[in-house]
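This section describes the prediction task in plain terms. A model, or a person checking by hand, is given the sequence of a single protein chain and must write out its three-dimensional structure as a string of tokens. No templates, partner chains or ligands are provided. The sample shown here is typical of the held-out split.
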Amino acid sequence: MILYIAAGLLGLLTLSIPVGVVLFLLGFGIDRFFTPFPLMRALGNLVWSSSNSATLIAIPFFVLLGEILVRSGVAERTYSALDRWISWLPGGLIHANIATATMFSATSGSSVATSATVATVAMPQAERLGYDPRLFSGAIAAGGTLGIMIPPSINLIVYGFLTQSSIPQLFLAGLIPGLTLALGFVVVTALICIVRPGLGGERRVFPLVKMLSALKDLVPIIVLFTIIIGTIYRGWATPTEAAAVGVAGALAIAAVFGGVSVPMLRDSLLGTLKITSMIMLVVIGASFLNFTLASAGLGQALRGFLEGLGLTPLATILVVVLIYIVLGFFIETLSLMVVTIPIIVPLVEAQGYDVIWFGILMIVLVEMALITPPVGLNLYVVQGARKSGSMTEVMVGVLPYVLVMLAMAVALIAFPQIALFLPGVL
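The expected answer:
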């Protein structure tokens, strides 16, 4: 059955069939050949129950929040402000790419949206200032992955929904690893540009007056992040309610900067509709596939297989990490999560590991999948924004940042408190 699923998944994806549809087709095939029950009779109830959740309502709100910030010009102002503050480092403007991605991740919740935003704003600067296209574009693709780690994260919401774990706790757990990853990206960029100065372009130093005047463009994003996360942890709002508050805050910020217009609102709503529809189709399709897999006994078979190997808890985690790295080459990230969580998480919990900690480890591995070919979505987003050069340049450019992510995965396994410290304190 596992070979059937793997071959079917890769074959259907090769035909460019939408991922959500692929998950349904695989579920139908498993139902037809591997289950003794007519599961199709339960399809309607399953579709309804897997989508009828107040938690999932947060997804369109966070997507809309990001759309408003992008289309109103707030993201471009943030980028320009960060350019004035950190372009003096070895690597120059590349650090502004990473810093903007980090700040935008703290409000958008989406990796693809973060990458698209930074790439659209930053790419015109690369050739004009003489930056190496590989490192410049690779930093954008890698920085964009922070959108699913730094709260609020749509992927963490989906993980919390599927595992019935605390989303506020997941948000807290993702904060230190997310910021550490961002710092790691900055450090590795600086080291590369110290060794190879020609890759980093011009280091620019701005007058203190201009640096201070740019702070006004950073304040809105910081305030918005504080409002969203603060209302959740003060107990004033659920993640869904906080997302709605964030949308109102984003509209207010856009209005202050003069970015609100009928075309902007129309495009933001249309973009939200498209992205949310894609996410929900994947979630519902994966729920159906997981239901058929459970009915066919795959979960029990896999659990029995791993238990039969007699692996230690650490060895089990290392095997799971390897599985995610390999699958990440071929499967879109959200699909990878929702397909594997019902099978892998019970195995991990049975070994005595914390479900919150594993959620953060999984997100790091999923982040790697976003920038590893052939299916890494961020690679295609950044290449689309470049409008010149080859995809190979982007693939080469992300390699140093993949190593940073691998180091973070190792650190999380060795020191679980990196993720569990804040949930345990707050």
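For orientation: Residues 262-296 form the longest helix (35 residues).
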